[in-house]
Amino acid sequence: MTTDLTGRIALVTGAAGQGIGKAIATRLARDGATVVVSDSHARRAHAVAEEISSLPGCSAVARVLDVGNRAQIVEVTESVADELGPISILVNNAAYNVLGPIFDYDPEVWDRIMDVNLNGPWMLSRQAMRQMRDAKLPGVILNVSTYAPDVGGEGIEAPYAVSKGGLNVLTRSCAHEGGPYGIRVNTLSMGMITGTRFTDALHADMQVAERAKSPLGRLAAVDDVVEAAAFLISENAANITGETLNVAAGTHMRY
Ligand SMILES: NC(=O)c1ccc[n+]([C@@H]2O[C@H](COP(=O)([O-])OP(=O)(O)OC[C@H]3O[C@@H](n4cnc5c(N)ncnc54)[C@H](O)[C@@H]3O)[C@@H](O)[C@H]2O)c1
Fold first, then answer.
1. CA 172 to CA 32: how far, in whole Å?
2. What CATH number does residue 114 fall under?
3. Is the pTM of this model over 0.85?
4. Does the beta carbon of 112 sit less than 6 angstroms from any atom of ligand 1?
5. In this structure, is residue 27 part of a structural domain?
6. Which of 146, 156, 210 to mutate for ligand 1's pocket (most ligand atoms within 8 Å of CB)?
7. pLDDT, tens digit, 9 for 90 and up, residues 185-241
């Protein structure tokens, strides 16, 4: 079986960080897709697109896109379709998280988290699914999520957990409605991923505690996430939709 994506247009959000988004974007380009490296950070988006384009056989363009901005989502998805062709792969990776107790949480920050982690992915899915349907393409959407909703954010990240819980439901809603048009939608779920800024910044004790939850005695890394993403996006997963794949070394089974 192959993960060849030649001729496909893939838009990845939050693709200009040091973690999962950039790694998935790079893999999709290596598999032959033309990748739209989208990110709210303009300089890094351009730098990553250039870096990917310099790899043998790889093609990428940069688009500045704040996924919390609906007008920008419409503008970017339409300009991508006009200039490159219809989007047939969408990876909703960008996310925002501010820890804090639910009693005192700032309502504006709450709204921003919902906008970036849930409302944006919905608007992007709506735009991309229309393009996939109209172009009669075998479309794929991958929502990058977490098992935080299963544990209610563990008392420190309720809004993030609520937004990602909504995202997980969005996966199934889009899988239901996209299916008749050949559109597959899945969730790639995880806990702490080593090699990301988020996990590397955590206190060592937190990583030790998380590792202790793994029956395998380890944490998953960015490469593990990329392999799973490449599989779910490829035709190897042609009959997998509405699914949640946990790349978490089993930590998701213990609270
Ligand atoms: N890092 C982890 O351990 C971990 C654990 C569980 C889930 N996740 C999920 O994985 C995904 C990627 O996380 P990561 O830590 O690898 O980050 P990442 O390295 O992929 O970087 C995130 C990028 O998103 C961009 N961004 C932030 N707000 C944005 C916005 N409003 N619009 C567009 N871009 C924006 C940032 O500029 C950054 O470049 C997220 O959805 C996160 O919830 C990560």
1. 27
2. 3.40.50.720
3. yes
4. no
5. yes
6. 146
7. 999 999 999 999 999 988 889 999 999 999 999 999 999 999 999 999 999 999 999
